Amino acid sequence: MASECSLLGVILVFTLFRDLVTVSGQNIPAVGLFSFGDSNFDAGNRKFLTKATVAQNFWPYGKSRDDPNGKFSDGKIVPDFIAKFMGIPHDLPPAFKPGADLSRGASFAVGSASILGSPKESLTLNQQVKKFNQMISNWKEDYIQKSVFMIQIGTEDYYNFTKNNPNADISAQQAFVISVTNRLKNDIGLLYSSGASKFVIQTLPPLGCLPIMRQEFNTGNDCYEKLNDLAKQHNAKIGPIMNEMAKTKQGFHFTVFDFYNVILRRTQSNMNYRFSFTNISCCGIGTHNAYGCGLPNVHSKLCEYQRSYLYFDGRHNTEKAQESFAHLLFGADPNVIQPMTIRELIVYPLDDPMREFWEDPMEKKLSLVQNVVHDFDASGSM
Ligand SMILES: *[C@@H]1O[C@H](CO)[C@@H](O)[C@H](O)[C@H]1NC(C)=O
Ligand SMILES: *[C@@H]1O[C@H](CO)[C@@H](O)[C@H](O)[C@H]1NC(C)=O
């Protein structure tokens, strides 16, 4: 009896200890984190690339931490939380900040970045990859191979397309989506050629539900479905592209985060996730508080309690929301991130081929239904 108790104690202590270690990230290899893309992942790079005033360097950005540091949030952003879970002892630094400690990786993402085009005072994904290659001697080859590369980009492309082509028909849309996703695939291939092997790609959120799009396209409490459609078309191509790369490029590992549905669920059933406000921003002016957060000529309207909002400004999430996304990325179930979590991606043996791939959630649902029907048939025949 006594020995059973102490065994239980040992198991309990072990379990607690293991969980503690997991939380602090100590039992996974000390690898690096690199982020690429647009404002969602910009760790403060923009101000090093432009002489213009950068609103996100001013209050109330960083409000929850009293630290306006060029991130588009009231506090930290997703890659900062991922860095923490990985045991990196500081936020992910902006790659272009002189003197930043880049030893555990860096953010190459810049606000307003796009995949196509030549964004003003920003960089395309392709230009970010070129900057990474210029700085590549900062890291050892095998360190790059083991490190995590997160990419979030595309919003700017589809927003720009919709503004310039309000009446684009289906075939023009499809052609644009193909040119964007082909270029994205090409840029990911360039990172792979530079030695990266572990990729985390986020799908685009429902772009038409962003407060700034509702405000700009005057949709009131509805989402602007044209932009949601484009995001869906783009997203449908991501999984298959990544599957193909993993099947054709040796040691290519990836996972896809279903950001679209993560945001949609929070938008539609907001109280399940404790967000009182999902159709308007916390900081800014206009019908949806979506413009001008941080700008000196705007007397920014700032909400009282950031944590009850899904969006901090017109198109970026609050720190509370970003922290929950990071938890999903690092340890959620396969409905949200597949075929594996970031944690599993980190420990996945280098050079091993992937054994599981991305599956279309709609097809998965169908096969589930077929299984149920099959089960029913089986029991009926007994
Ligand atoms: C936006 O679209 C215009 C016209 O198609 C193009 O010239 C420009 O480079 C695009 N900008 C971005 C950021 O994609
Ligand atoms: C936001 O949603 C609430 C609750 O559904 C609604 O009452 C309000 O009018 C919406 N705000 C805007 C600007 O559409």
From TrEMBL:
Q: Which UniProt keywords apply?
A: Signal
Superkingdom: Eukaryota
The record's section on CDD domains has: SGNH_plant_lipase_like
A GO molecular function annotation here is: lipase activity
Q: Name one Pfam family in it.
A: Lipase_GDSL
Gene3D superfamilies listed in its UniProt record = SGNH hydrolase
Biological processes, Gene Ontology terms: endoplasmic reticulum organization
Give the signal peptide, or none: 1-25
Family from the record: Belongs to the 'GDSL' lipolytic enzyme family.
Q: What is this protein called?
A: Uncharacterized protein
What organism does this protein naturally occur in?
Answer: Arabis nemorensis
